[in-house]
Amino acid sequence: MKVDNLIIGAGIAGITLARRIAEEKNESVLLVEKRNHIGGYCYDYRDLEGILIHKYGPHIFRTDNTKVYEFLSRFTDWYDYQHKVLTYVGGHYYPMPINLDTVNNYLNTNYSSADVIEYFDSTRVKIDAPKNVEEVITSQVGKEFYNQFFKNYTEKQWGVDPSKLPPEIVARIPIRANRDDRYFSCRYQGIPIQGYTQMLQNMIDHKKISVLLNYNFYNHRDEIDAVNVYCSAPIDEFYEYRFGSLPYRCVSFKFERHNVEKYQPVSVVNYPNENAYTRITEFKYFTNHQSKNTVIAKEYPSGEGDPSYPIPLKENIKLYEKYNELAKEESVTFIGRLGTYKYYSMDQIVDEMVEMKL
Fold first, then answer.
1. What's the predicted TM-score (pTM) here?
2. Which of 152, 219, 238, 292 has the most neighbouring CB atoms within 10 Å?
């Protein structure tokens, strides 16, 4: 089989790139995908009651990048969804990110906006240049909120003590001195009205794009002759783990249907402490779906399963660089979160594909 361009993996990175190549270069593109569906981790579907289920956990589109928003808006209309998250601590729900209500409800205080700023100024750990996640968070919110709201959640999520995680994982923790309880404050936020799968299906609806599902490229390496090869699958897998396996954080989901209209107060509730799961997602909130029943998913991070998140420890980055040197010697371009071993958000992935030089 001869094609101009082969893309391994039909997730949002591969599909965005495929659309650009087909439109801008008028070249043939073959997308190969080992799963039985397109979309990668963005894949969603409707259940029998019409609830839009995110199979691999909640995906909330948000960006301040107008170019990214306008590109995706060619293929979907948006449901104006403003994401809200609560954290469950000590039997109570608290808004997350931390805002004025979080502090007052947790401490049983009546701070004003100015007071809460003074509170954090007095409790934060004075660190000029934080060297890890623990120092980043304690230097902003102090040890009490770190221990109750962040420490165990971060350790469950990454499988690594926060004191050993690099600071860029969390960057800056937003603290709001007002009562704004939105999780994101980006200019553009929403959920594709017909879902991510339909948006991505619209993107590959082009005469120059072909898709093969249930197709494991590694079992058919010699069957496709491509001028250009792009890979969004894990880079270590592509090279048959020549230098060993790169560590990834994996996530499994336990889906439950409940005979109630609403299971929890908002779409996502974080569980930072005693529970094995990190969070519970209730999907009907995403599009304000009305039904008598609801579907939730409990999220369990682990070190085994399909890779979800690269773990950006120094020794892992060093191992990735060895694989990246192989890529430089060959005509393969690695893309996306798994191909480049970077902890990307959805809009960052699309931005890289939109800006990539073809």
1. 0.95
2. 238
